[in-house]
Amino acid sequence: QVQLVESGGGLVQPGGSLRLSCVVSGFNLDYYPIAWFRQAPGKEREGVSCITSTDGRTDGRAYYSDFVKGRFSISRDSAKNTAYLQMNSLKLEDTAVYYCALDGFCDGGDIDARYSYWGQGTQVTVSS
Description:
By secondary structure, this protein is an all-beta fold. Helices cover 0% and strands 45% of the residues. It has no helices and eleven strands. The chain has strands at residues 3-7, 10-12, 18-25, 34-39, 46-51, 62-64, 72-77, 82-87, 96-102, 117-118, 122-126. Strands 2, 4, 5, 6, 9, 10 and 11 form a seven-stranded mixed beta sheet that branches. A four-stranded antiparallel beta sheet has the order 1-3-8-7, with no helix packed on it. Strand 7 (72-77) and strand 8 (82-87) form a beta hairpin.
């Protein structure tokens, strides 16, 4: 059974940082793309970042939506079967529930929501 569990959300001031974690069980994270999405109240879910598999077919290449480029960084730790989203220079508009998702498209195009497995989400609130 595949399970994704996010953590690391919280309340932070504008300009601050948070690191989200996504622990994956049931799948070897190396073989699948993994992505982060977010959904703010009253808005549609949007793709934030994704990273390709590292199984030899692709090389763990990371992609970002324009609104987080230069501020967020996605990574994966094979030994811990965990993905991370380091979020720096947070803005008020980054406030949302953040979800990690496994097994979808990650090819430099739009990060769409056609991923097979999802976590339950973690709340990030940026407020002064």
